[in-house]
Design goal:
Blueprint (H helix, E strand, L loop, with lengths): L1 E2 L32 E10 L4 E10 L8 E9 L7 H7 L1 E2 L3 E5 L3 H15 L10 E5 L13 H9 L18 E2 L2 E2 L1 E11 L2 E11 L5 E3 L2 E3 L18 E7 L5 H13 L14 E7 L11 H25 L3 E2 L5 E2 L5 H4 L1
Parallel strand pairs: 6-7, 14-15
Antiparallel strand pairs: 1-2, 2-3, 3-6, 4-5, 4-15, 8-9, 10-11, 11-14, 12-13, 16-17
Helix pairs in contact: 2-3, 4-5
């Protein structure tokens, strides 16, 4: 089924806490960035042990342009990020971005190619589909549950409204920092010298480590809960950053790097078995990309760091406890941790 943000759970700001000094956009989500849509298909079947799905990020500029400016950063390459090499080489994004589970990534890439070709108005002889993934096998018993129909549903349902978080889309089977996690998103309005811009982030949170929040370390064991996730750390985490100014590819690469660095704020271990990737894109296409001055670039970096930290916490707050037929339990983070 497709999710459109209904029934959103408590978010960090509803507890009276904030991250950083900058104000969020109206939705406090990546869809605050003009020209970006998000769609999600969720596969959540407890009886069959299927907890997976796909999240689609669709830049509207691709309706008119062949590509949008983008930058990519690999913090740890233990993953199956489809389309990475051309993305790094050209600093351009030719398709929407999909986030799904590890062994569904290749089927999702094929479905994405078909979806783009169906909409092409001129012959296409080369196309670079971009698909990020996480390993959700600790919760999801089916290694390849995502079909072409699921991918197309996420792409076709993408809109600029609120972003559903937690157990949805590509984060349905995700665990992070010992708890049930999933999709999280946030935004910041950044006061640059030439006027305000919006920076939005979306995180597919699925990594090991110990949660750091509200100035302390929160361990599931200390709360009397079983730790969620593989004993041998493996997972992957993907951070997507969007902004509404046409930056250079090199600056977008540096912005993408801050997306992965920000995961350390909440306790990510960056372990051997976790592929950690950052992707930054501009929703605007211009003949002459804007080169941000150092002071402005620092503000964008700060917005990304703060946004990712908040997005991961919101993913944990929105997530619901999942129990598998095999006896595994991924506990949601108790909201009392932040309400105390």
């Amino acid at each position: 089924m497709a999710d459109h943000g209904r029934g959103r759970a408590t978010r960090l700001r509803e507890t009276g806490r904030t991250v950083g000094r900058m104000a969020p956009g109206p939705l406090n989500a990546i869809t605050d960035v003009p020209g970006l849509r998000v769609g999600q298909t969720t596969l959540d079947d407890a009886e069959r042990g299927v907890h997976s799905g796909v999240t689609a990020l669709v830049p509207a500029a691709l309706d008119e342009a062949a590509a949008v400016p983008a930058g990519f950063h690999v913090a740890n390459g233990y993953g199956k990020f489809v389309g990475a090499t051309q993305l790094m080489e050209l600093t351009e994004l030719e398709t929407p971005v999909l986030l799904t589970s590890t062994l569904s990534a290749f089927r999702a890439a094929d479905a994405l190619v078909g979806w783009v070709l169906d909409r092409a108005t001129t012959p296409v002889t080369s196309l670079n589909p971009v698909v990020g993934e996480i390993n959700d096998s600790w919760l999801s018993a089916q290694p390849r549950p995502v079909t072409e129909a699921h991918v197309r549903a996420a792409l076709d349902s993408a809109d600029a409204g609120p972003v559903a978080m937690g157990n949805v889309g590509g984060g349905t089977g995700a665990c992070a920092l010992g708890f049930k996690a999933g999709i999280g998103s946030a935004s910041r309005v950044v006061p640059l010298d030439g006027g305000p811009v919006t920076v939005g982030v979306l995180v597919q949170a699925n990594m090991d480590g110990d949660l750091r929040v509200a100035g302390r370390t929160v361990l599931p064991e200390d709360l009397g809960l079983e730790r969620a996730g593989h004993t041998s750390p493996r997972g992957s985490c993907v951070v997507v950053v969007a902004l509404d100014i046409p930056c250079t590819g090199r600056q977008l690469e540096r912005i993408a790097a801050r997306g992965t660095l920000a995961l350390g704020r909440v306790g990510a271990a960056f372990s051997h078995g976790s592929g950690d990737y950052g992707l930054a894109l501009s929703t605007r296409v211009a003949e002459a990309p804007r080169v941000l001055a150092p002071a402005d670039l620092n503000l964008v970096f700060t917005a990304v760091l703060d946004g990712v930290e908040e997005a991961v916490i919101d993913a944990l707050l929105a997530a619901r406890t999942v129990r598998t037929p095999g006896g595994r339990t991924a506990h949601a983070l108790p909201h009392s941790v932040l309400l105390d």
